[in-house]
Amino acid sequence: MSTLPRYAYFKGNLVPYADAKIGVLTHALNYGTAVFGGIRGYWNAEEEELFVFRPDDHFRRFLDSAKLLNMAFDTTPLELVNAVRTLLQTEGLKQDMYVRPLAFYEDEGIGVRLHDLTPAISIVALPYGRYIDNEEGVRATISSWRRVNDNTIPPRGKIAGSYVNSALAKTDALRAGYDEAIVLNQTGHVCEGSAENIFVVRHGTVVTPPFTESILEGITRRTVIELMRDALGLTVVERPIDRTELYLAEEAFFTGTGVQIAAITSVDKRAIGTGKIGPVCSRLRALYFDVVRGRNKRYRSWCLPVYKSAPAEAELGIAATSTSVE
Ligand SMILES: Cc1ncc(COP(=O)(O)O)c(C=O)c1O
Questions:
Q1: Which of 57, 143, 164, 220 has most ligand 1 atoms within 8 Å of CB, for mutation?
Q2: 98: enclosing H helix or E strand
């Protein structure tokens, strides 16, 4: 069991974590009518600073996910970023950590629907290390479970109820002796991991499925596409991926806030490439860890300092320009 947070941002106020309680009849608990986010903060020892990675982009997706569940909030991504900053300053974490925002229907009563309900937001933060122990050599399996799609539960948002789909795939993979599951979408194309986006390298080109293949609109995916194109000079193509392309790939890797960037070195016991982490993934990981810890000047605006003065709104990229690669 991980240590519980000391505080929570709960329905607009900062409260002791023990006071952030919900009842057993809560709509979100009974029907999965909640959406969540996952944001990492990285401790930079040289600067004695905690940097939260792309919080504004995470909160934009968070509010988009909420919109999919008919939730309307009178709040902006910037206000939520500021709430996180205050929460972290109060919590006082000085190590790598994770922020978990949750938007949930708080009504207590019976009745499946998405209308005439009251949405609420909570945010907590806790220390966090690796999500998968062996980021340099993940042994994956193709799951027998198929990914939900846009006409069942929209996977482009982080909808709590749809994570039953991820949990089914993950547990089966672990019980079969693998580290992670790769799920196919309804058309049988490679979709993503249980909680990660996926990339393969074929004939020197980096390939990843587009949003219309039932994937989550991952922030790390966006980040690494930009890093690979602009900083590493690689060609990145978004197109559907066949299952057997995975088996023939030179490299494959997962990306996600939790998993960061993890090399997939085998799929269903077939070695990917040499069976060891490859050059694209190695270079990308080195760059990524510099970027997220605020050590790379070019991408420093993605990192929100928690304890020293925060950058202006424009620097956070909140206002005018979108950083989307789509
Ligand atoms: C199903 C799924 N795909 C992909 C990702 C990666 O998304 P991100 O990079 O925004 O964390 C996650 C994790 O949040 C996820 O749950």
A1: 220
A2: strand 97-105
